[in-house]
Design goal:
The complex is a heterodimer. By secondary structure, chain A is mainly α. Helices cover about 80% and strands about 0% of the residues of chain A. The longest helix of chain A has about 40 residues. Chain A is elongated and about 105 Å long. The two termini of chain A are about 40 Å apart. Chain B has a single domain, classed as Jelly Rolls, CATH 2.60.120.10. The radius of gyration of chain B is 15 Å and the shape is globular. Classes of the chains: A mainly alpha, B alpha+beta. The interface between A and B is medium-sized, with 23 and 17 residues.
Chain lengths: ~800, ~150
């Protein structure tokens, strides 16, 4: 995939549209919360809050399916518009109810705002992430988030002013109008943006349920746990804050002013945090940023333990709210990327719905328990907040580790749309294996074959045990597969016995006799006697009719001959074709010592040979064979590959700028191939340091030609590579604007370069162009390689 | 007329549908194994029971491909025939030169060696054969459809 240029008019319009929409959503929600908290604290004791939180959960449980029904089978913009309009209308009704100064209306409003507000915000983010791919998200999400925070600050300031002249109920009316405005704006955006983005078609099957996603996907469960723990922490911090606020005042207007100012402070802090979020995301990544919130809460709670006064809870809440609406929201959104399509929307709703509400109820239960023990004071609340924030941070650490592999599985699902879900792949084997075992009892032989294959990757020992039983299966295909899988993995060969050099000579005679039966019999004898001295004879026979038999015999000899094969592989005097065969044979032997021999091929060796050895080592890594590897040498090779790749990209760009392409012969095509090979080598080497399967999948994603899939691949690399490796690799994968040299410079550089084929084609191009001023370069290019020599002579004749 | 260099042969092979997806360096190795021959009008190449089957690629000139008395098509520059023969599958077609022509050719042993060397070459051949099967299937299901001609590489 060619990297996508950043920006563009359409992208700019989209960025502003989303930003303005976010501004309206957050402004409306801030007003709603100010009215909600002001009405409650002026009419009821804060001790009711835990019980009201339970009511919020019940209301959320009732509202979530309604929101799902409102949004299902609609593009995210229209879905958002419907939710915004419907909730706006309900707020108009609440305004009338709130005019009655009863406690129950304040309590009911508290419950309603708690139920619909987060769902509306979640719907906005579903819309945003459907409109942006991961790379666009990285570029624009900070801006969109910042406008939302600005909305919070402006609405907080306005609320502080309003409370002098308007009642809380009237502020609620303003909120309702804002909802309707946001809905109208989203509807206006729906057609152009939807057309431009071509959002995924809504699935026709039954709706995906959050519980199904949680049951099937280990990553989603971990994500849910993080959300629940975050909500518990938030609930405790919020209660602590309200507890402190009510200690200060119970006057509605005073509370309104206080809450307004608090929201302004929150927004300003969030805005400041948001400004640096983009930079921080690039520097440290989303996974580290996610720790800002639990870390800050834990620190605030620790201060509260030392100084149990009003200000630590207020400042902790300030930090919690500000970072939840800025850095943490941005960072957490990335954790949803591994979930695709409807599963992501479902989990977003679940996150803002029953998971958060459930966490808040958990917090309520803890708070009620604390009150029951008569420990509901600021010090004990701080202690509780510290403990829960600590637990949250730990689980967040687990989620961070699971993010990269989950993203890779998601990429796999994108690359193979036929696969049912990304969640049932190899990263979740602990879940998958019992299910696969059940599948092995299926009456359908296709199920059995599939399950056995999957289990071989997930749990080979269990698969072999199951295969024993399946050798009696009624299906011949299953019996055959079971017999194959039952074979134990190839073990290291036994040490050779006595040296029997004489056996080697008859082997050669048999191989060259032209009698295939005789040759095979001789090879079987060699394998039976584990004769390591047969290796040179077999290497001699790696051509013509005996080639296949010789290769198979070397593979069967296994580790007995791997040292000799390694010597042949590393020896530049060995014919190129034999070296490539040896690389294949070592890869097929596949033991740790055989694979280690592959590492003897260096960057100076021919490119096809490097490819074969890397493929062999990657295959071994995928089979989890532990072999000796020098990580520093691998990184050095990656660095050299990157430099070469940059040079090839620049050379290719120079030739592309040349209008007379016909005078360059095969060179442009060969450079394209060199670029593709260079990029592949970088990934194959990375696959030696990082999870091989996932890294190679990222490479497939990057070259798929699909921008969306390519963006996921880049996001996987961002999430997985160490900072140093990221800095080394990412620029060349992203940039498509190399410094372009002149065509003559390219031809000169290639003709005198190490790559024999490119050098040959450069000389050929010089001849084609009759570039007499480059004659000295052609003279200097004379070597022993017959094709290059032939081309040099041809070019000189033309010059 | 000058014989082709290896690079020129490789450039010609890229025009052949069998080799269009094969990396150029692999084609150069294959090209180095290929022999260039000249034929007169009327020469018969690759008869059904030929003792020396080869894969041919046309450099210049015209050839006619027949099965029995039925003409299957004509081959020009970049056309290839004899793939099934070098893969060891009996071939029922005969190629006859219609004019003086130059061809590149390779023996079964060398071609099979090249296939064993390069998965890219093997995959490209499989894809070509697959496309032909699809085309045949299409023709069988649409008997009136016009049959493709020209670049037949049997």
């Amino acid at each position: 995939m060619e990297p996508k240029p950043e920006g563009g008019d359409r992208e700019t319009r989209l960025r502003w549209s989303l930003g303005v929409l976010h501004f309206l959503v957050i402004a409306a929600f801030t007003w709603a919360r100010i009215v909600r908290d002001g009405a409650l604290l002026s009419r009821m004791s804060v001790e009711w809050v835990p019980y009201l939180t339970v009511a919020v959960l019940l209301a959320t449980a009732a509202v979530t399916p309604l929101v799902a029904r409102l949004t299902r089978h609609r593009d995210p913009f229209r879905a958002f518009a419907r939710v915004a309009v419907v909730t706006g209308v309900t707020l108009l009704l609440w305004e009338l109810l709130l005019r009655d100064r009863s406690s129950w209306s304040a309590a009911a409003l508290y419950v309603w705002v708690g139920a619909y507000g987060p769902l509306l915000v979640a719907q906005f983010w579903v819309l945003t992430y459907s409109a942006l791919d991961p790379q666009q998200a990285r570029r624009h999400i900070g801006f969109v988030g910042a406008l939302g925070i600005l909305g919070g600050a402006v609405s907080g300031l306005m609320a502080t002013g309003f409370t002098a002249s308007l009642t809380l109920a009237e502020v609620l009316g303003l909120t309702a109008v804002t909802h309707l405005g946001a809905g109208a704006l989203a509807l206006g955006l729906a057609t152009p943006v939807s057309r431009a983005q071509e959002p995924q078609k809504a699935p026709d099957g039954p709706p995906v349920r959050a519980l199904t996603v949680l049951r099937e996907d280990g990553y989603a469960r971990l994500l849910a746990l993080v959300i629940v723990l975050g909500a518990i922490t938030g609930g405790i911090v919020d209660y602590q804050f309200k507890f402190a606020l009510q200690m200060k005042t119970t006057d509605a207007a005073e509370l309104g002013r206080w809450l307004g100012l608090f929201n302004v402070a929150v927004s300003l802090l969030a805005l400041a945090a948001q400004v640096v979020t983009g930079w921080l995301l690039t520097r440290v990544g989303s996974r580290v940023l996610a720790f800002v919130l639990p870390g800050g809460v834990a620190a605030g709670a620790a201060v509260g333990l030392v100084m149990p006064a009003i200000w630590p809870p207020v400042l902790t809440r300030l930090w919690e709210t500000a970072s939840r609406h800025s850095v943490t929201r941005t960072a957490n959104e990335f954790f949803f990327l591994p979930l695709q399509g409807e599963r992501r929307a479902v989990m977003k709703h679940a996150s803002e719905g029953f998971l958060t509400r459930g966490g808040e109820v958990g917090a309520s239960l803890l708070l009620v328990g604390l009150a029951t023990l008569h420990r509901s004071d600021l010090w004990h609340l701080s202690l509780m907040a510290l403990c829960v924030a600590g637990g949250w941070a730990v689980v967040l650490g687990w989620l961070s580790q699971a993010y990269g592999p989950a993203l890779s599985r998601s990429l796999d699902a994108l690359l193979r749309p036929g696969r049912p879900t990304a969640g049932r792949d190899e990263g979740d084997r602990s879940l998958a294996v019992p299910e696969l075992a059940k599948m092995l009892r299926s009456q359908d032989e296709r199920h059995v074959l599939f399950a056995l294959g999957e289990m071989m990757s997930a749990d080979p020992d269990r698969a072999r045990r199951e295969a024993e039983r399946l050798t009696q299966h009624r299906s011949p295909a299953v019996r055959a597969r079971a017999r194959r899988e039952r074979r134990p993995p190839r073990s290291a060969a036994q040490p050779a016995g006595e040296v029997r050099w004489l056996t080697a000579h008859p082997l050669y005679v048999a191989m060259k006799s032209g009698d295939e039966a005789r040759a095979r019999a001789a090879c079987e004898a060699v394998v039976a006697s584990r004769d390591r001295l047969a290796a040179p004879v077999l290497l001699e026979c790696l051509q013509g009719a005996t080639r296949g038999v010789a290769r198979d015999t070397l593979v069967s000899l296994g580790d007995v001959v791997s040292g000799a094969l390694g010597d042949a592989l590393a020896d530049p005097a060995t014919p190129a074709r034999v070296r490539r065969d040896v690389a294949v044979v070592l890869g097929r032997i596949g033991t740790a010592s055989a694979v280690a021999q592959l590492a003897r091929v260096g960057r100076d060796d021919p490119r096809p040979l490097q490819s074969l050895t890397l493929m062999g080592m990657n295959a071994a890594r995928k089979r989890e064979i532990a072999f000796a590897l020098d990580a520093t040498a691998v990184r050095d090779a990656i660095r050299a590959d990157i430099l070469e790749l940059q040079a090839r990209l620049a050379q290719r760009a120079a030739l592309a700028a040349e209008s007379a392409g016909t005078t360059l012969g095969l060179l442009p095509r060969a450079l394209d191939e060199a670029v593709a090979h260079g990029r592949e080598h970088v990934f194959r080497r990375l696959a030696l340091l990082y999870p091989a399967r996932e890294m190679l999948r990222a490479h497939r994603g990057l070259i798929s030609g699909d921008e969306r899939i390519g963006a996921y691949a880049l996001e996987y690399l961002e999430a997985t590579l160490s900072p140093d490796d990221r800095e080394m690799v990412m620029p060349v994968l992203r940039s498509n604007e190399p410094e372009v040299p002149s065509v003559d410079d390219v031809l000169q550089s290639l003709a005198s370069g190490d790559d024999v084929w490119l050098a040959t084609l450069a000389v050929h191009a010089i001849g084609l162009r009759r570039a007499t001023h480059l004659r000295p370069v052609v003279h200097a290019a004379e070597t022993a390689d017959p094709t290059r020599l032939e081309t040099v002579r041809w070019a000189l004749a033309r010059l | 007329m000058d014989t082709l260099t290896t690079v020129e042969k490789a450039a010609l092979l890229i025009e052949v549908d069998l080799f269009q997806e094969v990396p150029s360096d692999v084609l150069a190795e294959l090209a180095a194994q290929m022999e260039e021959t000249a034929h007169q009008s009327g020469d018969v190449l690759n008869e059904p029971d030929s003792a020396d089957p080869r894969l041919y690629v046309v450099i210049e000139g015209d050839l006619r491909l027949t099965r029995g008395s039925t003409t299957l098509g004509r081959l020009e520059r970049g056309g290839a025939f004899g793939l099934l023969a070098v893969l060891g599958i009996g071939q029922g077609e005969t190629a006859t030169a219609l004019s003086a022509c130059r061809l590149l050719s390779i023996s079964p042993e060398e071609y099979l060696d090249a296939l064993a060397d390069s998965t890219a070459l093997a995959i490209a051949n499989l894809r070509t054969l697959g496309r032909r099967l699809q085309e045949l299937d299409r023709q069988l299901s649409e008997p009136t459809a016009a049959r493709a001609d020209g670049a037949d590489t049997r």
